[in-house]
Specification:
Layout lengths: L1 H16 L3 H15 L15 H10 L3 H10 L7 H34 L5 E3 L1 H9 L10 E4 L5 H10 L2 E3 L8 H8 L5 E6 L5 E5 L20 E6 L2 E6 L1 H14 L5 H12 L6 H10 L3 H15 L17 H15 L14 H13 L3 H10 L5 H6 L10 H14 L13
Parallel strand pairs: 2-5
Antiparallel strand pairs: 1-2, 3-4, 4-5, 6-7
Helix pairs in contact: 1-12, 1-13, 2-3, 2-4, 4-5, 9-10, 9-11, 9-12, 10-12, 13-14
Length: 423
Amino acid sequence: MVQMIQSTINWLNRKTGVWPLELRLLLACLRCWQKKQHAELEAFTGMQIHWETVLSLSMRHRVFPLIHQVLGRQSSLAVPDRVMEQLNAARRDNVFRMMALTAELGRIVDLLQKASIPVVALKGPVLSHLLYGDAALRPAKDLDLLIAPDDLEKANQVMLQTGYRLKKATNGLSISQMKRYFFNTAHHLEYQATDKAVVIELHWRFHEHCYFDYNGSPFDRPRCQATSIGSTSVCHPESVDNLLYLAFHGFVHGWFRLRWLMDFALQLRSTRSDAWERIVINAKQGDLFHLLLPGILLAHCLLDIPLPASVECLLPTTGRRRTLKGILKPSLLLINGPETWGAGRARMGKGFVIKKLNSFAFHRHFISQMRYILNHFLPKPVDWDTLALPESLFFLYYFLRPALWCRRRLKPKTGNKHFPAIK
């Protein structure tokens, strides 16, 4: 087993060793930030670095606050002033945005708790505080809150009374219609504040292709710890369940952004050695066991996170080296690929195929795989947004979905206003 893991690590190192110079520099900066020293950057002295590409990659992977901090403190590389100015401007904008999100998180959680709605904060400012020590070091564009499905209607009333409105695909649908027709093919409701640029997602499960019941395992109803946000106590998954959630989230998105891998790596680094028995038990109960080792190997090879002493127990059978490489290959392609391959709803093309194959790989069992395939043919809220039909004609979505899907894929995609591409 040790040879099998070492062989995969050697393969990863060969693959990433030929990545573009600028992406390798970005990874070196992230490793330097973790280690609080910059000696590794000396290896890039005298190289022909295209700094505009470094700038673009730092935005594309949402790690620009960390890159700005590292490049501003090192003395080995001559970084152009214009690059540092743009990084500083992006960092400054992010500071104000994260302050606003943090304040709004405390306010909304307090209102939901007063309405007797248990809520768990996923990622966002709480994760930034716990893993980075500063909310401004981890950009976020929205707030993700997990609630029980039975609390959805009550939570919706709280959100509407607070000054939020349902965004886009669900705007105009009643909660009863949403639960009746689209509940099993969606996983969250998205709300936009009417007077501020804040988006909140209320989740009743973690992903549209995650079929676990909310009460079905420790992963789906995580044991929670509390963190104070202002005067409000905000619950979040404790370290073991958070590690599993970050592994799941990164895997289903193909580790497309290095920010997600950085989150997982920092949580992995802080995991105590005596917690691994419980991690393995919870992962098996939540059918997430096969996601752990790929994330750990990526964190080890790209971000220099030490392998846990119990890493061998994460590879339960022999003869899985090729399967492991097959799981990792799409992630390597997505990390090194263009923004359009993974951002939002990827358009048709190579990136789209890679993401779909990666999502399919999450489902190991035949029934789960068939549900994943069938899910693509069932109506979704975005179908209603594309073509709003009266409730009496909702059955037509089963026949119209292929045409509506093609229309959305061919529609030009707008940029992310929170993280615009740097010119």
